[in-house]
Design a protein that fits this description.
mainly beta, Immunoglobulin-like, 2 domains, 5-stranded antiparallel beta sheet
Length: 337
């Protein structure tokens, strides 16, 4: 049984980081898992500067062993594309077994700059012919695939990502139309809150928080080189407030390489908060034009400011458990964002 999925992306947002783009791209996917190969069919419309990236896996939902390398489909404007791609040497999907394909829309030349990330499953019950004109994707190798298409994608200042895939709550359905919505309980990183979480609730939902959870607010910036990150640091003007009070005690990490880019993280350690509703409001502007090596930002650029928010609730811990210090990391002190 083949799974059919329609993914629509409007005013799409970068998943890994703070940058926004104005992409209006969409992809309609039809995936067929055969015994020794996969047949992929894509149709839709793609903004200039963006492409489709995909990879096939041996398990459901983009899990298991990679059956193919990460591949890029170069499309522009209205497109219809099909490809039959062989599995890696020695790999096969037995009859009746499930395989999956992860598909992202991302910036050309940088699959970590995603605007959409989804998976579609298929039970191997035979093969079929391509539906569209047959083309050839670009083989990007297998090493970067997991990082480039992480189902979480929001890097944590403490290593790894926030809200890793195995979270409590109801699992998402295999086939999703539009943006995925999570029914999340307790996150695996409770209290580590991305300041722009409202725009990434499928990846950055704070989940259930208790008054025994130390609350750490963070945001980040990345660029192609350390020098470009420093250019951002020198010119960024952050205005981040919690319930109307500006966060003034903010630290930042040293510039570090994570994935293919260089990153800086800004952290506000708030400690324990009283039960209640909280709203973070995030504003970013720049004193002078900058670049991240992919796009321009600041005065006169297409993106001159970033505005976002994050809502969360603190509840009374029903068992009164003592908090655990999880943040053994050194930061460069900074008096304000």
């Amino acid at each position: 049984m083949r799974k059919f999925i329609l993914v629509a992306v409007f005013a799409a947002l970068s998943v890994i980081g703070l940058h926004t783009s104005r992409a209006e791209s969409n992809v309609q996917i039809f995936f067929v898992a055969c015994e020794n190969q996969a047949v992929v069919n894509f149709t839709g419309s793609m903004d200039a500067g963006y492409d489709i990236f995909y990879q096939v896996f041996s398990g459901a939902g983009g899990t298991g062993t990679p059956l193919t390398s990460l591949r890029r489909v170069e499309v522009n404007g209205a497109y219809a594309f099909s490809e039959t791609v062989a599995y890696n040497a020695g790999a096969a999907v037995p009859f009746g077994s499930i395989a999956s394909m992860r598909v992202v829309i991302a910036l050309e030349g940088n699959s970590s700059r995603t605007t959409y990330d989804t998976t579609v499953d298929d039970i191997q019950d035979g093969c079929s012919a391509p539906q569209n004109p047959v083309g050839a994707s670009v083989d990007l190798g297998g090493g970067a695939a997991a990082a480039a298409t992480s189902p979480s994608g929001i890097l944590s200042p403490f290593g790894g990502v926030i809200n890793p895939p195995a979270v409590s709550g109801t699992p998402e359905p295999i086939v999703v139309i539009g943006a995925r919505k999570s029914s999340i309980g307790r996150s695996q990183t409770p209290g580590v809150i991305f300041a722009e979480c409202n725009q990434y609730l499928d990846r950055a939902n704070p989940g259930i928080l208790y008054d025994t959870d130390p609350i750490v607010i963070f945001w980040s910036w990345y660029a192609r080189t350390p020098e470009l990150v420093q250019q951002h640091i020198d010119n960024a003007i952050y205005d981040v407030s919690l319930n109307g009070v500006r966060l003034s005690r903010v630290s930042k990490t040293a510039i570090e390489q994570r994935t293919r880019n260089y990153w800086v993280f800004y952290i506000a350690d708030l400690g324990l908060l009283e039960p209640g509703y909280y709203r973070l409001v995030f504003h970013l502007t720049w004193a002078a034009p900058i670049s991240d090596g992919y796009e321009d930002f600041g005065p006169g650029a297409a993106t001159s400011r970033v505005d976002s928010a994050c809502n969360f609730e603190i509840k009374r811990n029903p068992i009164g458990a003592a908090p655990v210090d999880r943040y053994n990391t050194l930061f460069e002190a900074s008096p304000s964002p």
